[in-house]
């Protein structure tokens, strides 16, 4: 579809792709390669074709202005995995099926279906921990669905998890002795970690965290005495000012307690399509950090991407290198990135924007061209990323349920065709080599690449005729998937560091502890500005981000876009359950109904993310009927983890007031 002065009009695929390539090429030729930016949304990771063919297009663009949902989510996981184990996807996974003690921070697997812990029927798996005599402890500013079934829930002040983790580490290595077990033979940096932990006894961090010192000590001792234990943290600890520190300290706690690479602790997957240790042409890159920085604020690159918090300013700030054109693929940054109003201003001011997306949504309404791929039910799928993050080694292929309609195209076909056109324009004429490669890849498609990866993976027979190994055909014959067994100890063999050793104390993370100490002086009592509350997000099981809000069955029931507020905070503001209130941050104001509940701690309010569908110019009838307010109209793009640039929107300072009653109409006469 092409946007015109009179509305959207249909356009042929060839015309749309030709125009897209021509305009992107012209902008790069006039203003430089970085004048074209790209944003990849969360659904890309759930799309086999995009995972395999998307990187080719990005390499062809050659722009340093690449962004994705990674830096408003799991970037701290990937950074610490890269620094400690040598690969961004060597993320330790809780061996939930065998653990005896699970400590959860800032995670709600009952609502997220596990997230970076792919676990079908996670409720049953959590219950099984308790049924075999184990314990679940949740530290969170909200009594989440997961906290409600845990043995213990502890409120903790938003943004202070790194302090609590250092206190637990203090008990583990200062008041007790570290016990690395077999890891000791190939782990460096233990002495540095022990020295850091000495400065953080529970008594010194308790005033900042709101967690009593005796509670922190009890949790640490129970964790250490469990037959097998695992500490797990997710979105709530990643999206704060010290997110990278949190994810690092979680892994360090698992290491020094002897629970890394151990049954029931934190372990590593060996996926059938091996994105870590497989053939180089099929594996995901190890990563990289700080090889360049964003133009305006100097935020660091990670794995070829800049932090999304810098995206709007890179479009709005004049000067060489300014983003003048943008390609979005399955993303909705207008709702999913901090300071949504400024993001929309930036999108509206672009010289050219093209979106590969099936929806006319809050972001794509700003595009000049929309290239709509087939729906998810019209394409096959194999979850390359989440099999690498699963609680068991599994493999499952899902064929398309429906044949694509006539004239429709898969995402990967759009990406490949656009890449070929850009290469042709850059060379000034069709290249025989490029044309042959394009034709070969078009014939190959995602399924043949997947089959190759399975054959060359750890369960494949490669191409040995006498051996029976995993192939795509075998997965087709197993519609419910194939269980390849529980997670197994795999270190040091699976380490991707050059020296095949665990780097327990990376210099970047060790140095960042000083920033933490400066932010929370140990001899002071934390102060909160009068009337100020700390905003956190939340997720409901049926929400699954903005891209699922146009599905009627998932939006049934009572409204879920409400602001949770503790009864004490509501009473101080003369607010009652169901009343409308205005919520104001440094960057914006929204109006939402209040839900008064003791499920959030005093001083904290919670608003779900992904809403805010009341914008004009979209075609999302179901979502618009349940518009809600956008959490990211309140979050601040200036608030980031200074180490890695990940968005820090957990704990956004806000003020909440009773909304003014609408003026009544003046009686006639």
Keywords for this entry:
Prok_molybdopt-oxidoreductase; 16% strand; metal ion binding; Dimethylsulfoxide Reductase, domain 2; 3 domains; six-stranded mixed β-barrel; alpha/beta; five-stranded parallel sheet; molybdopterin cofactor binding; Barwin-like endoglucanases; Rossmann fold; Oxidoreductase, molybdopterin-binding
Q: Count of DSSP helices?
A: 22
**Which strand-content bin applies to the residues?**
15-25%
Query: Span between N and C termini?
Result: 52 Å
Reading side by side through the largest sheet, how are the strands ordered?
A: 22-26-23-25-24-27
Strands, count: 27
Unreliable parts: 664-669
Domain Molybdopterin dinucleotide-binding: 533-652
Organism: Myxococcus xanthus (strain DK1622)
Protein name: Oxidoreductase, molybdopterin-binding
GO cellular component, one term: membrane
């Amino acid at each position: 579809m092409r946007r015109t002065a009179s509305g959207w009009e249909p356009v042929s695929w060839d015309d749309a792709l030709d125009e897209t390539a021509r305009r992107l090429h012209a902008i790069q030729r006039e203003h430089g390669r970085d004048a074209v930016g790209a944003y990849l949304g969360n659904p890309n990771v759930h799309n086999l074709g995009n995972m395999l063919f998307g990187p080719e297009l990005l390499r062809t663009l050659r722009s340093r202005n690449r962004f994705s949902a990674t830096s408003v989510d799991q970037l701290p996981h990937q950074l610490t995995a890269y620094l400690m184990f040598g690969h961004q996807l060597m993320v330790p996974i809780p061996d939930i099926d065998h653990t005896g003690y699970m400590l959860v921070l800032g995670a709600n697997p009952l609502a997220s279906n596990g997230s970076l812990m792919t676990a079908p029927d996670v409720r049953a798996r959590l219950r099984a921990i308790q049924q075999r005599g184990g314990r679940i402890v949740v530290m969170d500013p909200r009594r989440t669905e997961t906290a409600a079934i845990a043995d213990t829930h502890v409120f903790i002040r938003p943004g202070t998890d790194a302090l609590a983790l250092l206190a637990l580490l203090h008990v583990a290595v200062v008041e007790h002795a570290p016990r690395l077990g077999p890891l000791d033979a190939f782990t460096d940096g233990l002495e540095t970690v022990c020295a850091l932990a000495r400065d953080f006894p529970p008594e010194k961090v308790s005033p900042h965290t709101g967690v009593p010192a005796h509670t922190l000590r009890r949790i640490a001792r129970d964790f250490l005495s469990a037959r097998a234990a695992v500490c797990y943290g997710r979105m709530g600890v990643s999206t704060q000012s010290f997110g990278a520190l949190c994810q690092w300290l979680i892994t360090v706690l698992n290491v020094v307690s002897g629970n890394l690479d151990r049954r029931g602790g934190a372990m590593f997957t060996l996926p059938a399509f091996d994105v870590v240790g497989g053939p180089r042409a099929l594996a995901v890159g190890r990563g990289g950090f700080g090889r360049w920085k964003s133009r305006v604020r100097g935020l660091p690159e990670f794995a070829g991407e800049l932090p999304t918090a810098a995206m709007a300013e890179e479009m709005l700030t004049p000067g060489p290198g300014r983003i003048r054109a943008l390609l979005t693929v399955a993303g909705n940054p207008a709702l999913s990135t901090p300071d949504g109003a400024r993001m929309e201003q930036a999108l509206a001011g672009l010289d050219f924007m093209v979106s590969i997306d099936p929806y006319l949504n809050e972001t794509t309404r700003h595009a000049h061209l929309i290239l709509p791929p087939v729906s998810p039910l019209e394409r096959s799928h194999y979850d390359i990323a989440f099999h690498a993050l699963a609680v068991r080694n599994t493999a499952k292929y899902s064929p398309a349920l429906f044949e694509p309609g006539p004239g429709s195209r898969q995402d990967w076909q759009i990406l490949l065709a656009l890449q070929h056109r850009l290469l042709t324009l850059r060379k000034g004429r069709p290249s025989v080599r490029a044309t042959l490669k394009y034709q070969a890849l078009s014939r190959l498609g995602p399924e043949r690449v997947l089959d190759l990866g399975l054959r060359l993976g750890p369960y494949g027979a490669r191409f040995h005729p006498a051996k029976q190994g995993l192939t795509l055909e075998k997965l087709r014959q197993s519609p419910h998937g194939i269980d390849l067994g529980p997670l197994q100890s795999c270190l040091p063999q699976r380490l991707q560091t050059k020296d095949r050793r665990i780097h327990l104390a990376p210099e970047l993370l060790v140095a960042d502890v000083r920033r933490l100490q400066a932010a929370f002086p140990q001899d002071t009592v934390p102060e909160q500005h009068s009337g100020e509350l700390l905003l956190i997000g939340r997720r409901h099981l049926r929400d699954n981000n903005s891209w699922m809000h146009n599905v009627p069955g998932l939006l049934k029931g009572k409204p879920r876009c409400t602001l949770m507020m503790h009864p004490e905070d509501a009473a101080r503001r003369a607010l009652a359950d169901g009343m409308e209130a205005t919520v104001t941050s440094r960057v914006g104001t929204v109006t939402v109904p209040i839900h008064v509940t003791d499920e959030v701690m005093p001083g904290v309010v919670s608003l779900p993310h992904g809403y805010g569908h009341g914008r004009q110019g979209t075609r999302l009838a179901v979502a618009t009927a349940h518009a809600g307010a956008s959490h990211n109209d309140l979050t601040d793009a200036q608030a980031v983890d200074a180490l890695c640039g990940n968005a820090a929107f957990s704990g956004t300072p806000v003020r909440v007031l009773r909304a003014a009653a609408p003026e009544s109409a003046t009686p006639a006469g």
